[in-house]
């Protein structure tokens, strides 16, 4: 189809519906169907066309590798959770904190081993640090902000060993099919990392906030401590003013967890769970955990509590947490698989690109990183499974962890498949050519990156999804870059930064809800607490994008 204004229709459908429903999937599905019916205007033509686009995109080798990688990465996270690795790390941290500065130092250092996914970091670190900082009399908002700021922004910057990397590299490859890339998609992603200004600014701000509180901040924290003490005194023995319901007994919790595992994960709980011992995520007093899609960037809606605190309400316990809290903590069951995954990823990436560049860094940039990451992940899964078997971990438990963790990633996989299909149908409608011939000739190059960043911040805040924002805006950004001669790394950095803003600051983000749940904070109050510094960081980022756009133009 020749390029025309009608080629904009799929995107004009996707964005308003996503903002109205605050969910990306309905918007993408509607945009795909509209685009398919525009090409096949018969009663069943649009449906057949949409299915054909999805099947065609999933059949592309690189796309299929990414789907397998995302499912395998979820399986990896589930596996280390049900074998005591996560709880072992939690206990290791809890035993080494003696002061407020030390607690914040441990919080930052912990990001070195929990950077794989934002929610994975939250459910691993937040329950432990909450108990530690409560003992040190530090307000929960300050603790939550520090952990949150070292979750999504860090995951967006780490170039290896995360589901974010696979997703971002896959989007770059899809969005740049009609562009000349400066190297491989992974190379372009590496070039965009220094240009993700929002992540760098919010990390710098949080680092200062963690170790150097101003007098006004100290007074505010003292007032928060007094208010929290008063609230606890008033609500002692109640839940939000209502008498605390009876605790669920062990048999009821086991039944609920089994039903939830079958319904959500299609997996059965291991039949030989040991008796319940010390909770996995904190110490003797228990905690609240949140089980969600660990890398969805804001797409998962499933929230529930687990561990001892779950017994205070009637929510079904998270099956993975239900299993994890009965497993003896073993830090080595997290450290060894993680080091193996990172080492293999770097080695296999270099191995794939060693013939394309004379230097190590050049080989890493020119390699097929998606293929190398998948190979490293599969080898790690096989080796880890064998190692756990040698430890006499029941096979039923490891299989459950693999299935439960992998199935949690299905929401991300469906999202990505729809992003691919919408991008393909818009290309066939002439979207790229139309943007280049019209919008690209009227928008100054210096304004493209800051405008795209601010627009993306608005979308990501409304829908609460970093992955969804990236999927909607990156194809548009690359089309604008081609027509305005704006460097692709700058556009990629602006889009990734805008999605990071929403994943961090939006009250609809699963990170915000998970953190507020774990830290026992009102969601909207906590979201407002984060919004002001996030807006300052976004404003500074917009100025930097404007300056960078002016320089390159």
UniProtKB/TrEMBL annotation:
It comes from the Bacteria. InterPro entries: Na/H_Antiport_NhaC-like_C. It is found in: Cell membrane. Residues 222-248, 267-316 are annotated as: Disordered. Residues 284-299 have a biased composition (Polar residues). Residues 335-550 form the Na+/H+ antiporter NhaC-like C-terminal domain. This is Na+/H+ antiporter family protein.
């Amino acid at each position: 189809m020749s390029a025309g204004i009608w080629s904009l229709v799929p995107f004009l459908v996707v964005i308003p519906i996503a903002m109205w429903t605050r969910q990306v999937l309905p918007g993408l599905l509607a945009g795909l169907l509209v685009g398919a019916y525009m090409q096949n205007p018969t009663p069943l033509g649009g449906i057949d066309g949409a299915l054909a686009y999805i099947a065609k995109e999933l059949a592309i080798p690189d796309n299929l590798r990414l789907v397998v990688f995302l499912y395998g990465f979820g399986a990896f996270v589930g596996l280390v959770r049900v074998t005591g690795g996560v709880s072992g790390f939690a206990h290791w941290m809890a035993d080494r904190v003696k002061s407020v500065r030390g607690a914040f130092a441990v919080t930052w250092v912990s990001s070195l081993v929990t950077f794989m996914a934002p929610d994975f970091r939250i459910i691993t670190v937040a329950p432990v640090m909450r108990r530690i900082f409560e003992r040190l009399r530090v307000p929960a908002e300050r603790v939550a902000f520090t952990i949150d700021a070292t979750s999504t922004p860090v995951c967006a910057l780490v170039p290896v060993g995360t589901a974010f990397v696979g997703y971002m590299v896959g989007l770059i490859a899809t969005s740049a099919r009609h562009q000349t890339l400066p190297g491989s998609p992974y190379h372009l992603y590496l070039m965009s990392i220094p240009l993700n200004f929002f992540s760098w600014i919010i990390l710098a701000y949080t680092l200062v906030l963690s170790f150097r509180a101003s007098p006004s901040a100290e007074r505010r924290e003292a007032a928060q401590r007094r208010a929290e003490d008063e609230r606890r005194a008033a609500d002692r023995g109640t839940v939000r003013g209502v008498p605390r319901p009876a605790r669920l007994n062990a048999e009821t919790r086991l039944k609920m967890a089994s039903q939830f595992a079958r319904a959500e994960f299609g997996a059965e709980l291991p039949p030989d769970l040991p008796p319940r011992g010390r909770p996995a995520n904190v110490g003797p007093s228990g905690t609240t955990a949140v089980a969600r899609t660990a890398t969805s960037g804001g797409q998962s809606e499933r929230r529930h509590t687990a561990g001892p605190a779950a017994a205070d309400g009637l929510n079904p316990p998270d099956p993975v947490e239900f299993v994890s809290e009965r497993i003896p903590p073993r830090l080595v069951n997290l450290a060894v698989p993680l080091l193996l995954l990172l080492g293999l990823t770097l080695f296999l990436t270099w191995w794939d690109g060693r013939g394309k560049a004379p230097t190590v860094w050049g080989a890493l940039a020119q390699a097929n990183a998606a293929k190398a990451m998948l190979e490293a992940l599969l080898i790690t899964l096989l080796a880890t499974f064998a190692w756990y078997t040698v430890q006499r971990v029941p096979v039923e438990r490891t299989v459950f962890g693999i299935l439960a963790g992998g199935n949690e990633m299905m929401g991300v996989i469906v999202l990505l498949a729809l992003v691919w299909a919408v991008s393909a149908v818009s290309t066939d409608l002439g979207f790229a050519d139309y943007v280049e011939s019209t919008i690209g000739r009227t928008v100054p190059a210096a304004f493209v990156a800051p405008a795209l960043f601010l627009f993306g911040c608005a979308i990501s805040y409304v829908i609460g999804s970093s992955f969804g924002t990236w999927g909607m805006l990156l194809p548009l950004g690359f089309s604008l870059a081609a027509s305005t001669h704006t460097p692709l790394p700058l556009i990629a950095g602006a889009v990734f930064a805008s999605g990071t803003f929403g994943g961090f600051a939006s009250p609809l983000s699963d990170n915000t809800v998970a953190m507020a749940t774990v830290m026992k904070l009102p969601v909207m109050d906590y979201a407002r607490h984060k919004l002001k510094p996030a807006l300052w960081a976004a404003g500074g980022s917009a100025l930097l994008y404007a300056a960078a756009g002016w320089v390159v133009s």
